[in-house]
Specification:
Layout lengths: L14 H4 L9 H23 L3 H24 L8 H19 L9 H22 L4 H25 L5 H19 L9 H26 L6 H22 L2 H11 L4 H34 L7 H26 L4 H12 L1 H4 L4 H22 L1 H11 L7
Helix pairs in contact: 2-3, 2-4, 2-8, 2-11, 3-5, 3-7, 3-11, 4-5, 5-6, 6-7, 8-9, 8-10, 8-11, 9-11, 9-15, 10-12, 11-12, 12-13, 13-15
Length: 401
């Protein structure tokens, strides 16, 4: 295979098309781009907080879904091209501005700012497809995959534009179809032609988990009542314990093993399908779970002595269960084994929802923190030897025997 970087002077017919990624380092511009996604996550929580009903939760997750898919598209893009080279950098800045405008329109995405959101989202996706088409100029397989993605993206954006002028319940139906087509596009059009750098791709998704967890910390501060009494202080500490536990369950071992597995997968269809399933699809469930937890934390900090409603109890406990179930699916997809202890914890948390609506929200948060802490302690003790070996081999930079 010809190395496009082997010539003494790379082809410059289009810098966007020819300056390809060569290393696994996540660039400063990518991290800068990801920070815009922080506002998008916060706005999704705000949307659900303003309407903490089943319909409100569904709308928040739907908006999160389309924003996640647009972010994921750029994660795939910047695993092919160097985002800091030439005009690509300028287009990335333009996409950031459009993403910011879309995020501002999130609270009213099903109402007053529906058209603004749809138009800004369309600009984000158009810039993504344009860069991908330029990057695939000399790669017929990649260009074929991008063309298929362009079709599903165009239809999805068109449906969101139509939804801006529709009333309920048609608006919700159009949103559902748009999300389904957008997310299902890469699955329907195949995975053979895509390209990615495994280490970069895994690290980029790890960074977005950190960003989502940071949003849960922001929810603690935003949700706290102006009078910082003992209950608020305890709730803030317990919320931090929950966020730290969520970080531990992902970054202690799971992220390391998954990144190695992606790197070991055969280049082409096998690796691309693993990346699509494990990171583009399953990581959405993780992020959705964290956003739901953030909603529960926000409502708890606002009124620590009052019970959560059924919807917000499902958000906090069910969101944590969703996060753990996504971890189970992640492990099944990558190493073909079942994490039984996390499955048990997820089932326990779901079973606690009927009890949570009768307890003070602070008590529910304390139970959640205790369950997650118990899970971490059990795994750390039960799998101490294997955990240390894996961390030494992978985090330490050495290769397993």
């Amino acid at each position: 295979m010809t190395d496009v970087t082997s010539d003494s002077e790379p082809r410059r017919g289009s810098r966007m098309a020819t300056v390809m990624r060569e290393d696994e380092r996540v660039t400063a511009l990518e991290l800068f781009f990801d920070l815009v996604f922080v506002l998008a996550l916060t706005q999704c929580t705000t949307l659900m907080s303003h309407d903490p009903s089943w319909a409100g939760l569904a709308k928040g997750l739907a908006v999160l879904g389309v924003l996640w898919w647009s972010w994921g598209g750029y994660a795939w893009l910047t695993s092919v091209v160097d985002p800091e080279e030439g005009a690509v950098r300028l287009v990335m800045f333009g996409a950031m501005a459009a993403m910011l405008v879309a995020a501002l329109g999130v609270p009213g995405a099903f109402g007053s700012t529906a058209l603004l959101f749809a138009c800004a989202y369309g600009v984000v996706r158009a810039a993504h497809i344009m860069l991908f088409l330029l990057a695939s100029r000399d790669d017929p397989d990649l260009r074929k995959s991008v063309a298929g993605l362009a079709v599903s993206t165009a239809v999805g954006v068109g449906l969101l534009l139509a939804a801006a002028f529709a009333g309920e319940p048609l608006r919700g139906v159009l949103w559902g179809v748009a999300l389904l087509l957008d997310v299902g596009g890469p699955f329907l059009f195949g995975a053979e032609g895509w390209k990615l750098v495994p280490g970069h791709f895994a690290e980029r998704h790890g960074a977005i988990i950190i960003i989502a967890l940071g949003e849960s910390i922001v929810a603690i501060g935003v949700g706290a009542s102006p009078d910082v009494d003992a209950g608020v202080v305890v709730a803030a500490v317990l919320g931090t314990v929950v966020a730290a536990a969520l970080w531990w369950t992902y970054f202690d071992v799971v992220a390391l093993v998954a990144a190695r597995r992606l790197g070991q997968a055969a280049e082409g269809r096998e690796r691309n399908e693993m990346a699509r399933d494990s990171y583009s699809y399953i990581h959405y469930l993780m992020v959705a779970g964290i956003v739901l937890i953030a909603l529960g934390l926000k409502k708890t900090l606002a009124h620590v002595g009052d019970p959560l409603t059924t919807e917000t109890a499902v958000a906090m406990l069910g969101g944590t269960a969703l996060y753990l179930l996504a971890h189970i699916a992640f492990r099944l997809r990558n190493v073909r084994t079942l994490n039984r202890q996390r499955l048990v914890c997820a089932v326990v948390l779901i079973a606690l929802v009927p009890l949570a609506v009768h307890l003070a929200s602070l008590a529910t948060l304390a139970i959640l923190a205790a369950v997650l802490a118990g899970l971490i302690i059990y795994e750390a003790v039960r799998f101490a030897d294997s955990r240390e070996r894996v961390r030494r081999e992978l985090a330490g930079g050495t290769r397993p025997a």
